[in-house]
Write a structure and sequence with these properties.
Order of helices and strands: EEHEHEHEHEHEHHEEE
Number of strands: 10
Distance between the termini: 21 Å
Helix content: 25-40%
Largest sheet: 6 strands, mixed
Strand order of the largest sheet: 7-6-1-4-5-10
Length: about 200
Amino acid sequence: MSRSERVVVFDVDGGVADLSAFAHFLTVGDSGGSHRQAWQRFFEHVGQAAVVEPGRDLVEAVAGLGFVVVYSTTRPVSYAGETRLWLGENGFLPGRALLCRSRGDHRAAAGVKAGHCRAVGRWLSAFVDDESETVDALRSGGVRAHSFEMLSGLRVRELRATLTAGKGATLTGRGVHRPRDHHRRGAPHRRPGTVVHGAD
């Protein structure tokens, strides 16, 4: 693998896919069954998610800058097929890989995503998420994490600078400023874990 390759990982739910119309399935009432059954009913609708248009635009812009796209989701790996199908049917780039929650993994979402970052390894340029709490948690662990909202508001030059910025970069309201821009491509570093390769 080339040392110059760089990966940007995008969170699926909330970032590019909107399943909020089915959130009511997660409310477990007296006759609602178990917590596990509630999540199963919710995930049965992954193929009906609405597209988050700014998220799709951001994925395309990042890929256009030469980065390799990888998707991350806390959906169980058993829903990887439906997720890849949804991405393809809705015009998303297939991405190099789709990283899912492994069977038996009951960690909080931030923990799963941190694991995905470790799987990509030193090729990781940035992780993009829709939740500020997850962005903060990943940053506290040393990951260059950004919100979809912040990146979507940047011009192309600012977006490139943000995604290639090192520790010396300065965050401002207009993005990350760095003296030099670097064109980098990315690919995931494969380590043990649940990685589903991009749809063909």
